[in-house]
Amino acid sequence: MKLVLAKDYRDMSRKAANVISAQVILKETSVLGLATGSTPIGAYQQLIEWHKKGDVSFASASTVNLDEYCSLPSSHEQSYLSFMNANFFDHIDIRRENAHLPNGMARHYEAECEAYDALISRLGGIDLQLLGIGPNGHIGFNEPDEHFMMKTHRVRLSDATRQANARFFGNDPNNVPEFALTMGMLHIMQAKKILLVANGQQKLAVLDRALNGPVTPRLPASLLQLHPDLTVVFSEK
Predict the structure, then answer these.
(1) Is 229 part of the annotated catalytic residue set?
(2) Where are the alpha helices (DSSP H) in 166-200?
(3) What is the pTM of this model?
(4) Which domains, ranges and CATH numbers included, belong to the chain?
């Protein structure tokens, strides 16, 4: 594991963007596993800036997002497709057919989850997986459980997760979708490289437990300790 301390959120975002851009520059056909939420926005903004300067291109890359809400149309402003379009895809040269998210509106969730796993395998797996960490140690929407969920699956979001995401839904946890589709731990852990970004004092305790405590499905991020190429970029500010 490589731990990189950043002086603030902007510095964290730049350092994370450096890792992602280097991956794409060294391998133009990289498969990038992407994350949503407020933490990676700064890294996406930095990558957009470098793309506009001609320093990095995503024209030959593919992306697979970690998750998507269930029963939330892709046109909804809080769908993760809308998030990715607004914060990244609309501003770079990626081919839209190469940018993938689970379909949270699928009528048959099990079939959609199996298809998403098959897609990732067909792409050759993930070269670099970008992750954040939730207040309860979830990554993607892999919530604390009695066992690690290995494959893409439908998950009931915990109260803690819905509370954390309420700021995007009028500050009312009841407005946050109850279910989501999320990539499981298998494809995350099979990624050739993992980049975990976190900032703020409120993330320090859960990050310390995840990286230094016992490996347990009650803290899904703890499994990252076993990955051979994990980079963590953290800023207290």
Answers:
(1) no
(2) 185-190
(3) 0.96
(4) 2-66+73-135+185-194+208-214+222-231 (3.40.50.1360)
